[in-house]
Amino acid sequence: xxxxxxxxxxxxxxxxxxxxxxxxxxxxxxxxxxxxxxxxxxxxxxxxxxxxxxxxxxxxxxxxxxxxxxxxxxxxxxxxxxxxxxxxxxxxxxxxxxxxxxxxxxxxxxxxxxxxxxxxxxxxxxx
Amino acid sequence: xxxxxxxxxxxxxxxxxxxxxxxxxxxxxxxxxxxxxxxxxxxxxxxxxxxxxxxxxxxxxxxxxxxxxxxxxxxxxxxxxxxxxxxxxxxxxxxxxxxxxxxxxxxxxxxxxxxxxxxxxxxxxxxxxxxxxxxxxxxxxxxxxxxxxxxxxxxxxxxxxxxxxxxxxxxxxxxxxx
Lengths: 127, 178
Prior knowledge:
The structure holds two protein chains of two kinds. By secondary structure, chain A is of the alpha+beta class. Chain A is built from four helices and five strands. Chain A is globular, with a radius of gyration of 16 Å. By secondary structure, chain B is of the alpha+beta class. In chain B, a hairpin with a 4-residue loop joins strand 1 (about 20-30) and strand 2 (about 35-40). At the A-B interface, helix 1, helix 2, helix 3 and strand 2 of A face helix 1, helix 4, strand 6, helix 5 and helix 6 of B.
């Protein structure tokens, strides 16, 4: 039976020692992948996987990656809402893993919204 | 939906929005009976009889962002296409269980797909909820219980840390995405 090994978890704990875990509370950027039926059918899970990959490679600890439900714009899925603290949230639409890659580099890390894929800038925040 | 793992993700997302704290997912095949069975159980607010009756009607939904709810009807269709069925039971305030059965060998049975991606997506999006996952496919068993992982991590790292998520993903590496 495939099960998580306790030794593997211990190894992670060891490697994390001394680093402050910012994922527990404060964050600089929040990426919300819309994961309604419409989003999932359009490929939202591959977007989540793409961002997870980028997040891990970046080693950043001040970025939250999460999901939420349908935002009511089903024809624009897969969709994310990207919130950078202190700036207006941006909704990105009709995404694929390549677009997610560029958004992560340019907006999440670089601070410059990618206008090419944005639906609109501004609207409600979740903080 | 391209495969069953996406249906499972969708139905489990419903559970997260029903106020559940524990969601159990079971995907098992019984070769001798030519059956594939998926069950998703949650301890959320449940549904009363009237709501239960409308659950597989596309024009019944609890959401307010749009007027149609396709998650359960799509899964029911996928099951029925193989001669299988969808059964939903619930106790208001307590629990809901969705069980979909498929004829394993049926030409129209969609592949199971990437259950590792489904489970890790659920954990990423809902780090405060617990998931118990069990699958028995091709004689390969996989068992994930976020309660025991959480206990082992003991608050030192969050369960949605990429390092932990990748460990969970690795458990699914060997399985055929059949």
